[in-house]
Amino acid sequence: MIYLDNASTTQVSEKYKQIIDEYLYSSYGNAGSKHPLGGKSKQAIDNARKLISTFFQTIPDNIIFTASGSEANTLAIIGVADFLKSCGKNHIITSKYEHHSVLNAMKKMESLGFDVDYIDVPDGIVNIEMFEKAIRPTTGLVSIMYVNNELGTVNDVVALSRLCKDKKILFHTDCVQAVGTFKLFIDELGVDMISVSGHKIHAPKGIGCLCVKNREILSNIIYGGEQEFGLRPGTENVSYISAFGMAMFEAGISREDVVEKINILSKSFLGELLKLCKNDFNNIGLHVNAERSEKTCKVLSIRFDNIDSETLLLLLGNKGVYVSAGSACSSHSSISSHVLKAIGLNDEQAKSTIRISFSKYNTVEEVKAAAEIFIDCVMLLRKMNKSK
Fold first, then answer.
1. Beta bridge partners of 147
2. Is 228 helix (H, G, I), strand (E, B) or coil?
3. How far apart are the first and last CA of the chain?
4. What are the pLDDT digits (tens) for 152-164?
5. Looking at per-residue confidence, does 282 or 30 come out higher?
6. What is the helix (H) or strand (E) element at residue 212, kind and residue range?
7. Mean pLDDT over all residues of the chain?
8. Best CA proximity match to 116, nearest among 133, 87, 85, 94
9. Annotated active-site positions, please?
């Protein structure tokens, strides 16, 4: 098996699995209980919060644990509705290629009376001049992702947030695909809220967090007890929180080494693809989406002329190469990716797109082997199409 779908989810580290088992089967107390077993769980949560606060260069009380990056995005957006209304701010800015959790939260904000502008991203990034023109006196919130989950394109969050600071506009950034490969110090970015998810950095699925500079701007969107400062009620998932804390800490200290390795993997894969199709380039019809924009090394979005990505996925899967046609969150939809449409691809081009994504557990040997299998599968589909 060659697993190249790491933007969807990553392999859980064996080290974190041991942490999970500890708090599931041995130290399994409820963190709200007053006995020693509960106290051990509470201490584990406090330790994880401290580790994660170091990652963001903030204080532990600014970390709110959630069940996912999607929940963190939802809390960041819908959670500030009351605050924005109290300030008389009813305008929000986002982009057309945000994650569905952001776009659907924006739909909810519109139903609550907010006016939302969705900025075009024809080059795969948010244009700073276009963004500045969208700002109004009534703008109260901006939500722009750092790294796009389908294209891997990188927005200049620092420049965008700088335009908002003097105008006292809240800035939230979805960093689910940026975590582990980008430095996310909240003050250096100049943002107010950052969302991340554990399963992108080898922690388990089902855990994430929102880092917020000032908790007072948030109202809870889930109702219950006082866990997570009353902003995320419910019995804490101690095992996943503990694993997530360690994963975030290690992601912070190993980031440069991971980026260096993944950059080599990405260049090796694309270089091998280009080498293999060099003698028959027109027949292969290979394109890199959003090629001119700055991108993370982790995600590569490509397409092959007149090749259906779903069919290609089946062939690749049969040969043990696992990739995706786009975001895993919309993989069951027959509608073309909103991200690919936002950068100007037509339906046929969007449905010809494959997303390859790398992790520190991949090797140069396997990505080169995957490239060869890619070309073999594309050529097979070309022959099949000609014979029809």
1. 154
2. helix
3. 31
4. 999 999 999 999 9
5. 30
6. strand 208-212
7. 94
8. 94
9. 329
